[in-house]
Amino acid sequence: MKVFSILCMVTMMTVCAYGQDTVRRTYTRTIQSSTRLDTNEVVYNEQGKALHYYQYLRLLNSGEYTVTIKGGMPGDPTAKKFLKRLSVEEQNRQYTMMKKFTIIKSPQLQEGMELDVMPLLQVMKPAELSNKVIVLIFWSAGCPPCTESFADINDFLKQIHNPEELVVLAISRDSKQVAQAKLKEKPLLYAQFLNQASAAYSAYQLNHMPSYVVADKSHIIRYSATGTGQTTLPSFKSTIKAVLQQ
Fold first, then answer.
1. Are residues 65 and 135 in the same domain?
2. Is the distance from CB of 216 to CB of 243 less than 8 angstroms?
3. CA angle 218-219-225, nearest 5°?
4. For 244, phi and psi rounded to 5 degrees?
5. Mean pLDDT by 10 residues, the chain (246 residues)
6. Residue where a domain terminates, one of 49, 70, 96
7. Single pTM value for the model
8. How many domains does the chain have?
9. Which ranges in the chain belong to alpha helices (H)?
10. Contact 235, 225 (CB under 8 A)
11. Can you name the residues that pair with 35 across neighbouring β-strands?
12. Pairwise CA distance, residues 16 & 25, whole Å
């Protein structure tokens, strides 16, 4: 299993009993670390049903849920993880809290800058990018958070009324054969693919996946973030919708 940069907000609850009194303490911690992704991990829904990685990640990608830990601290054998639905206010608060941790470090991909399209010309012509909203998705076939986000992105793209004004480029270091094999399982709508793209990653000085960039029709970067879908996809989609309406 490859190692990915995992970004998450975890609410931790411990319960300590003192005679007849029960003291409950809730801790919220923001964690950014390089960790080994465990796709066998179980998270329970609000009804207590066990969900595996590929089930609960779809819910997290909506931005409407977070994961809480009850019965101990992370790593405790007795601790269990549960999905918690967030109110709109909580979603906005979570986004504000997490935004500083999702910023792409690359000096080439900062919001407000003009996107350098030169690394994209391997698969696109300048005229094909002119007056288009440009969406860059940096991914890998061996990155489950990357490819599991595709279904949620597809659902969103199906609702776009003017896809002809949009250019979606999925950029991977994988070979064409490896990328195509994964895309048969996890397709991505409207996308053109730039594979074996180590040169593009170097040009953009980017090392983390998944990462998402949205540039408006003047090619000014309006959104730039890295991290798991639950911390990036809601604002990624809302930015695409906003710039398409401009």
1. no
2. yes
3. 140
4. -70, -25
5. 40 31 35 56 89 83 83 79 86 76 92 97 94 97 92 93 95 96 95 96 94 97 88 90 93
6. 96
7. 0.74
8. 2
9. 53-61, 88-102, 126-129, 144-148, 150-157, 176-185, 198-203, 229-244
10. yes
11. 4
12. 9
